[in-house]
Design goal:
The protein has 5 helices and 5 strands, in the order βαβαβαβαβα. With about 130 residues, it is of the alpha/beta class. It has one domain: Rossmann fold (3-Layer(aba) Sandwich). The chain has a 5-stranded parallel beta sheet, with helices on both faces. It starts with 11 loop residues before the first strand and ends with a helix.
Length: about 130
């Protein structure tokens, strides 16, 4: 089931990032840009938020303790929710993993202009 775009015309974004500073900065940047944002510190809490928040975009850190980014994405896709995906990673292999998942790739440290470009492209896919 498709869930409507949040008020203001921007998609809802779920950020799954274990680094509290990075997570907080991403939430602040995207909220300032008008996105409705929820954040999770790990894949397990991300899955819980996925069911209640119904994001249209998921911004996911690839490498995390516990449930890694790939495992989280596989589980999120099983839920059946429709979302665009952007992968963040400091690993050189992050781009290849993102491509294999059909996701946009944001190398760490995150370039804010690139982040906003990726979010805009993903948002346009829900508006059009």
């Amino acid at each position: 089931m498709a869930h409507p775009i949040s008020p203001g015309g921007r998609p809802r974004v779920l950020i799954v990032e274990d680094d509290a500073s990075a997570r907080g900065a991403l939430v602040e940047i995207l909220a300032f840009e008008g996105y409705t944002v929820e954040a999770a510190m790990d894949g397990f809490s991300g899955l819980a938020k996925l069911a209640a928040f119904h994001p249209q975009i998921i911004l996911c850190d690839l490498g995390r303790a516990g449930m890694d980014g790939v495992a989280f994405i596989e589980r999120a896709r099983q839920v059946g929710s429709r979302f665009r995906l952007a992968i963040m990673s400091a690993s050189h292999a992050g781009g290849e993993v993102a491509a294999s998942l059909g996701a946009a790739y944001l190398p760490k440290p995150i370039d804010i202009d690139r982040l906003l470009d990726v979010m805009s492209q993903a948002a346009n896919q829900f508006v059009s």
